[in-house]
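Example: Interferon-induced transmembrane protein.
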Amino acid sequence: MEKQPLQYSTLIYILAVLGLPLCCCAGFGILPSGIAYFIARSELKKFYTNPEIYSNQDNIYTGKIIALVVMIINALYLAYFFYMLYSIGWEALQDPALLQERLKGF
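Written out as structure tokens, the predicted fold is:
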């Protein structure tokens, strides 16, 4: 019996790598990297239930690790973004002069 590859290895890579540049957009890359992580987890569960059928589990492992690292980077950046928003204030983001004044302390 020939082994078949797990289905979503390419999708996992694409979503995980797409999450990295979206980190610069206030941490919104946590969405595609989170989706990639959960797809990889479900694919690995499918592999663990019947390992003699599937062949490319190493690609799924790698995609899961990439998605997890990108998700952690995005979570840290999202926390930093909310900290800056809390410390500077929403009204300072709308007024450039007030923003310059408040950023002198950083």
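The chain has a mean pLDDT of 89.
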